[in-house]
Structure formats: C-alpha cells, structure tokens
Specification:
Layout: H1 3-27, E1 49-52, H2 54-57, H3 63-75, E2 85-87, H4 114-123, E3 127-133, H5 150-160, E4 164-168, H6 177-191, E5 196-199, E6 217-219, H7 228-239, E7 250-252, H8 265-277, E8 282-284, H9 293-299, H10 302-308, E9 317-322, E10 325-331, E11 337-343, E12 349-354, E13 366-370, E14 375-381, E15 384-389, E16 394-401
Helix pairs in contact: 3-4, 5-6, 7-8, 8-9, 8-10
This protein binds alpha-D-galactopyranose.
Length: about 400
C-alpha cells in the first residue's frame, strides 16, 4: 500500500465514524427533529403592540367588530404609535373541520372569511393575528384546537396572510408543552411566512426557561382580570422571569385591561407604566371604538410607549419594596434609566430613589423627565429624588445622565 492510499483509507474510516456518531445523537433525541431548529422569524424585536378581542368581547366577535376596530386604531392615531396587530382570539371558527380537515371560519360571524379580513387589515397598514390551541379544542370548547393538525393549520394561516398566532393550552393530551409548542413553531417555520408566535401556556411549566427557543413571547401567568389585585399580582409573577426576556423573546403578563371600566385612571396608568417598563406586549384589551379620551391618553402616551419599545430590550425589574411602596427600574438605550415609583398602599406617601440604586453615579447630574406630567422635573439633579405618590398611582421618570 502506498502512503497516499493509506492516508485516504484512514480518512474514509474517520468520516464514517463521524457520520455514525452524528446519526446516533439524532436518533437519541426522543423529541424528534422539530425541536432542533433555530427560531429565525425575525419578528418581535421589540414587544408586540396591538389589540386583542378577548378581554372585552370574549366570544362575542365577528368580522364587523374586527374591521371597525382596525379602523378605530387608525383614526385614533394608535396605529401610528405602533399598535399594529389586530388579534382575533377564541371563537372565530366552526366547531368542526371541513372534510379535508381544514379549520373553517364561522359562517354566521365571519362570512367573508379570514383571508378577506387580512386583506382589509393589511390595506390599512396593520397586521392580522389569530388564535388556536395546542390541544383538541380551544379553551371556549367552541372550536377545534390544532393538536395533530399543526402543519395543516400553519399552512392555512399562512395562506390567509396571518401575521401573529396566539397558541393556547387547553384540552391537550397530557404531553409536555415543550413538545406541543415546538411542533407548531416548527410548522410555522416550515411555511416560511414570518408569523409572530405567542405561546400561551400560562407559566405552568416555567416557559421563560424554554419558550424563547420556539416563540416570540410566552405568558407567565393565568388570565388577567380588570382589578388592581390581579394586575399587581401578575406584575410580581412576571417580574421573576425578567432575565429571560430580550429582543425577539418576551415575557407576557397578559393583555391590557386599560379602558375596561373596573379600575381607576390612576390604577390604569400604573398598569400601563409597569407593563411598559417590563417590556410586556402592549395589546389593548378594551373596545377601541368607544374608548374615552382619558383611556386614549393613557394608551397613547408616546413617551411611555417608547420605554416599552426601547431598542435595548431589557426588562425592567422591581428593585425595592417596603410597606407597599415600590421602586421599579431598568436600563434604556443611550445610558438612560427608566424608574417607576409605585404606591400599592392605601394612602398617599413619599417614595425616594437614589441614583446609585438604579445604576447611576450619585455625583453626576441627571436630566429628570416625568412621563405622565410630560415635563422636566430637573435638568441637573444629583443623588436622587423624592416624590409624593397617591394610592395605587405611580410616577414614571426617564433619567438621562447630563454630561
Ligand atoms: C385562555 C387564555 C385567554 C383567552 C381564553 C380564550 O384562558 O389564557 O387569554 O385566550 O383562553 O378562551
């Protein structure tokens, strides 16, 4: 044997061995190929913004409601501020699939079909979202879920021009959510359309730890209610998972209740401020068509929205809490810091924050902007500040180092 032949033979042996071990690794992955891919849909680089039908309408939805809401998002100026996704939640489909196994829009409420609705919404510069479930039926039990039909439904959604999928967790087969949510993620990946994938697993199996490889957002809690107790307890729960969020992958403490009527304006302002700081999806949950001027002023505060949409994409956290008086803070781009002083107690109280505890030098002067008052508190403030905050109200500031 010549030396060249020997080297060639050895090389073939090494190559065969490598191929064998790779295939061993593959077959030892019990979850299959659909968990082994890169989520590369490019969407949700900042938290998604828009509207969703559930909090206000539950199952009482139809195409007219969706179309007029899209119109209202445009006419109120909310769309121009970033509220782009018009999301249909549960109850949009017939109870059974057609003879080919396809989901069918409910003919009594969506007679023109979902494709026509997507065209309508797209023509206004908006995007259309839809809802399904990683189980046999959705939570309302009024329509089928996508379990076992992942690829077929993903193709249907793509053909209709869907831009966002909220994928719920009711009535499944007991298998791991990691499997069920990965399957739909892979199906969406295969259809090729960039569809924002919102995992609605309610935080049960700690999705912050795994959902970022499959989806663009994941619910961290059960359903929100239009009460102060619900909003504050959800904020605390969502806060635990802050370090897992980032561009393209967000903790989702559920949709907004602002404007639904059961909380005070101060409570709604606090709800909106904390959601913005936590980089939560900002999905309006009220009837935009009849929203009051005050509701629109809250949802339309551009400076608070900018906190949420900041390109740095770091979730703000609770950094101090005593007797219901809290400081929440987070870094923003250009070395700025956002601070929320939140009063969860029943009486008006002073809350103080020091620059050092929010990561700024106590000695360097800072520009302090109050985002609800829409005014500058100071153009050169050192050490920290104290503000009096009404019960269930908050202050939200941006601190900009002035050097
Ligand atoms: C679950 C979800 C809600 C909503 C309903 C619809 O409860 O968490 O956000 O989608 O289902 O039935």
């Amino acid at each position: 044997m010549t030396l060249g032949f020997r080297i060639g033979f050895l090389l073939v042996l090494v190559l065969c061995f490598c191929k064998f071990t790779v295939s061993m690794n593959h077959s030892s992955n019990s979850r299959g190929d659909y968990t082994q891919f890169l989520l590369s849909n490019g969407v949700g680089r900042t938290p998604p913004m828009g509207w969703n039908s559930w909090n206000h309408f539950q199952c009482n939805i139809d195409e007219w409601t969706v179309k007029t809401t899209a119109d209202a998002l445009v006419s109120t100026g909310l769309a121009a501020l970033g509220y782009k996704y018009v999301n249909i939640d549960d109850c949009w489909a017939e109870e059974s699939r057609d003879w080919k196994g396809n989901l069918r829009p409910k003919s009594s409420t969506f007679p023109s079909g979902i494709k026509a609705l997507a065209d309508y919404v797209h023509a206004r510069g908006l995007k259309l979202g839809i809802y399904s479930d990683a189980g046999y039926t959705t939570c309302s039990k009024k329509m089928p879920g996508s379990l076992g039909h992942e690829q077929q439904d993903a193709s249907t959604f793509a053909q209709w021009g869907i831009d966002y999928l909220k994928y719920d967790n009711c009535y499944h087969d007991g298998s791991a959510p990691q499997d069920r949510y990965a399957k739909m993620s892979y199906a969406l990946h295969k259809v090729g359309r960039p569809i924002l994938y919102s995992i609605c697993e309610w935080g049960e199996e700690y999705p912050a730890k795994w959902a970022g490889q499959y989806g663009n957002a994941w619910r961290t809690t059960g359903d929100i209610k239009d009460t102060w107790e619900s909003v504050t307890s959800i904020a605390d729960e969502n806060n635990r998972w802050g370090r897992y969020a980032g561009p393209g992958r967000w903790n989702d403490p559920d949709m907004l209740e602002v404007g639904n009527g059961e909380m005070t304006l101060e409570e709604y302002r606090s709800h909106f401020s904390i959601w913005a700081l936590m980089k939560a999806p900002l999905l309006i949950g009220c009837d935009v068509r009849s929203a009051s001027r005050q509701t629109l002023r809250i949802l339309g505060n551009k400076e608070v929205i900018d906190v949420n949409q900041d390109p740095l994409g770091v979730q703000g956290r609770k950094i101090r809490s005593k007797a219901g008086l809290e400081i929440w803070a987070g870094p923003l781009s250009r070395k700025r810091v956002v601070v929320v002083l939140l009063n969860r107690s029943g009486s008006r109280a002073p809350i103080s924050v020091g620059w050092r505890e929010v990561g700024l030098s106590p000695y360097s002067p800072v520009i302090v902007r109050d985002l609800w008052a829409r005014s500058f508190v100071s153009m050169s403030k050192r050490y920290g500040l104290t503000a009096y905050v009404a019960p269930h109200a908050c202050k939200i500031y941006i601190l900009t180092p002035n050097s």
